[in-house]
Amino acid sequence: MMKTFKLRIVASNKVFYDGECQCLTIPYIDGGAMSFLANHENVVIPLDNGEMKIKTDKDEVIEAFVGDGFIEFLNNEALIVCVSAELPDEIDKRRAEEAKIRAEEDLRQRQSQIEYSVSKANLSRAMERIKVKNRHEI
Question: What are the 10-residue block averages of pLDDT along the chain, 138 residues in total?
């Protein structure tokens, strides 16, 4: 049996996961992914919008969208605090596609640097939600 660590994922509106985990893979800010196993070194790092995979202590794999946030791995316990965490069946594809269109339109408009950054973040979040939903549609 594989070693596990405690994982707690807190989104802005709910506790998404609270239990034991064998392996966690999260989207990293450089566009790649980072994985964690039991007894990982202590770190605090940012995470990006994208797909997260959790392999539980029962060998179940949970795949979900995770929004901007950070992970703290300390003394074999991981805490993720993020804007959002959603299972593929919780993602409203139509709403995500509408958000993508709005963000693309916002980017075409003349904006301040802050507004531009917000529009880019909105577009990234919408595109990643759509990608996760599409990957898990039957």
Answer: 92 95 92 92 93 95 94 97 94 92 88 86 89 83
Q: Which residues are within 8 A (CB) of 62 and not within 5 positions of it... i.e. 6 or more apart?
A: 17, 53, 54, 56, 87
Rounded CA Rg of the chain:
16
Residue position matching structure tokens 């994982």: 7
The pTM (predicted TM-score) of the whole model is 0.84
* φ, ψ of residue 110 in degrees (nearest 5): -70, 125
For residue 59, which phi and psi values (nearest 5 degrees)? 65, 20
Closest CA to 5 of 52, 56, 53, 51: 56
How high is the pLDDT of residue 32? 87
Distances (CA, A) of 103 to 12, 66, 83: 21, 19, 18
